[in-house]
Amino acid sequence: MLKVDNLTFEVNEEGRKRCLVDHISFQVEDGEMLVITGPNGGGKSTLAKVLAGIEKEDSGEIFLDQENITEYDIDHRANAGIGYAFQQPPRFKGMTVKRMLSLAAGKELTEEESCRLLSSVGLCSADYMNRQMDGTLSGGEMKRLEIATVLAKEHKVSIFDEPEAGIDLWSFSMLIKRFEEIHQEKKECLILISHQERIIRMADKIMVIEDGKVKQYGKSEDVLPSLFQQEKCQKCVTGMEGGVC
To answer: Signal peptide span per the entry (predicted)?
Structure first.
């Protein structure tokens, strides 16, 4: 179970403080899926990075299974059971895909295990196993490999920042199936940041963040009606399809 209490993160822009995460509180029970959505630039990815320990909160507390992990750095939070997939994955020249997956899993993976992971994100193991995680891979390929690194190990909480971005429809369908499987297993908390209606409708809870603040938060059946009514009203203004903002 993940509990976040009054979390705040500020940055200094040209001598003025700007609150990117503004006193946010929420809770995700074991086996629950929380989908975080809202306008671009609203603070969703920043919140995810604070939870993973990439950014350091200014105030508030984070509890994982009733253990206060607020002072843990990124390594300690990962060891405690928090997995995180970047929206824009980093590249590693000289690191092969197989080696990266083994490091993510915390053990040396067999070819069969690596193949299964790659297949789960729509990649052929024969084509990718010995590829380097560098500029020779496209953004979509890197995104799928990043997601595979999180799937390589069981976590208490897995955070995926816009997993649908940069991948084709077939791979997206495979990811949806994998998220559904994880959700049905009820072994870990899932937090997905997404604009995709199909992902949002999978959620147990939905949180809408705008300007660093929680605008809506609650059970899916309570938030969905107003959320997609708002989306229909805004679509002609934003020009975006398949999203809520």
So the answer is: none
Taking the complete model, does pTM exceed 0.90, yes or no? Answer: no
d(Cα 222, Cα 94) in Å, to the nearest integer? 48
- Give yes or no for a contact between 133 and 142, defined as CB atoms under 8 angstroms apart: yes
Q: Show the low-confidence residues of the chain (pLDDT under 50).
A: 235-245
Q: For the chain, what is the largest distance between any 2 Cα atoms, rounded to a whole number of angstroms?
A: 54
Give me the residue spans of the domains in the chain.
2-90+154-198+221-238
Cβ-contact 29, 1 below 8 angstroms: yes
CATH placement of domain 2-90+154-198+221-238: 3.40.50.300
Which residues neighbour 189 within 8 Å (Cβ) at sequence distance 6 or greater? 1, 2, 28, 29, 30, 31, 32, 33, 34, 156, 157, 158
